[in-house]
């Protein structure tokens, strides 16, 4: 690989700035292809400074179709296929499950159900709905999820959806970076971009100085330990203000989330949000009354004005990968792959001008993700 010695230091092919979810995936993938990669992360190797640390890591393209457009749904479907292959190559285990999502609602919120279903159907390809959306009534609800008993008269089972353990994924990716020889610089906040042939900016909301249109959408979650409840898959509770969910991880750990509040407010969880989240869990299963609260946490989802992810080439030596909003885990494998393919096209010289970038974009699987600085006018600014 191409290395240029500068002042005795080895100049990497790529400096990846921001080692949250996307930065780790991109650095790991490029190192696996034989490139010299350095990664700079302001936080620790565990990933505690990232939105990814707080996320529930549900991989639910069909449920999310109620709030996401077809592009994001498609990225989610493709990424759901990629995750198990990706995890299989990591040096540490990552809890990954494809046991579906259950959507339920209380009688008082029943008006939400037809609206949710209409939006979901509008944004989903037919093949995703085929066998992927099962209406349940009466005893079918506890047959699908015995822990719920007779508390919900109706529900929908979306059997093909998945979830994983976000913190295990971050840890396994950190181990994967070491195994592939990535020069990791943890606890290193970057202001001026480091020296490298190409820089890939994956700073999430931290990338705002270079991308003022980015904004944060605050999300709050609770993590509880609740032995004996035994939910087998994420349960979503329709709610007039924001969709609530309870995502069961290993060892009786549950992630209960998540609020969705405009603003870059990283302060601790509010009393109102804690009450709403925990009451929702209690209403789904009274056993949550005896759960132990391990953590109340908040972070901001990095969001672009059109709520789409984007991979932007500045026309020179910088790529920016951002805007994964509330779907980072759901879509990151596919978004990272797009970014890596463009990065490799820069290395090979296949992309080096506006025209060659336009050709690359036209041939790409997800052209909507790709932006040259010259075309970044409307939605991205
Ligand atoms: C409450 C909540 C729940 C969520 N639930 C889900 C879910 O169920 N499913 C799902 O798919 N997605 C979910 N998400 C969304 C997901 O977490 C994000 O989309 C994803 O983390 C974005 O990835 P990223 O790498 O772009 O940003 P991040 O994960 O935030 O990583 C960015 C990294 O850049 C680093 N950084 C920033 N500035 C600098 C700097 N100057 N120098 C060095 N490093 C820097 C940060 O420390 C951070 O580690 C949720 C998010 C939240 C907040």
Automatic annotation (TrEMBL):
<keyword id="KW-0560">Oxidoreductase</keyword>
<dbReference type="GO" id="GO:0003884">
    <property type="term" value="F:D-amino-acid oxidase activity"/>
</dbReference>
<feature type="domain" description="FAD dependent oxidoreductase">
    <location>
        <begin position="13"/>
        <end position="342"/>
    </location>
</feature>
<keyword id="KW-0274">FAD</keyword>
<dbReference type="GO" id="GO:0046416">
    <property type="term" value="P:D-amino acid metabolic process"/>
</dbReference>
<dbReference type="InterPro" id="IPR036188">
    <property type="entry name" value="FAD/NAD-bd_sf"/>
</dbReference>
<comment type="similarity">
    <text>Belongs to the DAMOX/DASOX family.</text>
</comment>
<dbReference type="GO" id="GO:0071949">
    <property type="term" value="F:FAD binding"/>
</dbReference>
<dbReference type="Pfam" id="PF01266">
    <property type="entry name" value="DAO"/>
</dbReference>
<keyword id="KW-0285">Flavoprotein</keyword>
<dbReference type="InterPro" id="IPR023209">
    <property type="entry name" value="DAO"/>
</dbReference>
<dbReference type="InterPro" id="IPR006076">
    <property type="entry name" value="FAD-dep_OxRdtase"/>
</dbReference>
<protein>
    <recommendedName>
        <fullName>D-amino-acid oxidase</fullName>
        <ecNumber>1.4.3.3</ecNumber>
    </recommendedName>
</protein>
């Amino acid at each position: 690989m191409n290395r240029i010695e500068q002042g005795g230091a080895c100049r990497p092919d790529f400096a990846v700035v921001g080692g949250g979810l996307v930065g780790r995936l991109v650095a790991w993938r490029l190192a696996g292809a034989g490139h010299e990669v350095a990664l700079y992360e302001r936080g620790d190797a565990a990933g505690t400074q990232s939105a990814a640390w707080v996320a529930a890591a549900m991989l639910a393209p069909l449920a999310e179709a109620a709030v996401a457009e077809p592009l994001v749904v498609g990225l989610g479907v493709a990424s759901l296929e990629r995750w198990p292959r990706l995890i299989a190559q990591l040096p540490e285990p990552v809890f990954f499950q494809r046991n579906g999502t259950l959507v339920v609602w209380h009688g008082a919120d029943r008006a939400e159900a037809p609206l949710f279903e209409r939006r979901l159907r509008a944004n989903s390809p037919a093949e995703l709905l085929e066998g992927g959306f099962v209406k349940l009534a009466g005893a079918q609800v506890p047959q699908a999820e015995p822990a719920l008993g007779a508390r919900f008269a109706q529900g929908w089972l979306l059997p093909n959806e998945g979830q994983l353990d976000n913190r295990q994924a971050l840890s396994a990716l950190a181990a994967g970076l070491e195994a592939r020889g990535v020069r990791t610089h943890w606890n290193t906040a970057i202001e001026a971009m480091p020296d490298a042939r190409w820089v890939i900016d994956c700073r999430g909301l931290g990338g705002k100085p270079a991308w003022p249109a980015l904004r944060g959408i605050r999300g709050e979650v609770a993590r509880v330990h609740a032995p004996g409840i035994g939910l087998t898959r994420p349960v979503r509770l329709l709610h007039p203000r924001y969709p609530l969910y309870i995502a069961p991880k290993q060892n009786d750990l549950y992630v209960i989330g998540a609020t969705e509040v405009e603003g870059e407010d990283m302060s601790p969880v509010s009393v109102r949000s804690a009450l709403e989240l925990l009451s929702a869990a209690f209403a789904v299963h009274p056993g949550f009354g005896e759960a132990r609260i391990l953590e109340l946490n908040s972070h901001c989802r990095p969001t672009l004005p059109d709520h789409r992810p984007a991979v932007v080439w500045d026309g020179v030596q910088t790529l920016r990968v951002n805007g994964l909003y509330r779907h980072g885990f759901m879509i990151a494998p596919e978004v990272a792959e797009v970014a890596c393919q463009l990065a490799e096209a820069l290395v090979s010289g296949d992309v080096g001008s506006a025209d060659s970038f336009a050709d690359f974009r036209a041939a790409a699987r997800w052209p909507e993700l790709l932006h040259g600085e010259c075309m970044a006018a409307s939605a991205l600014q």
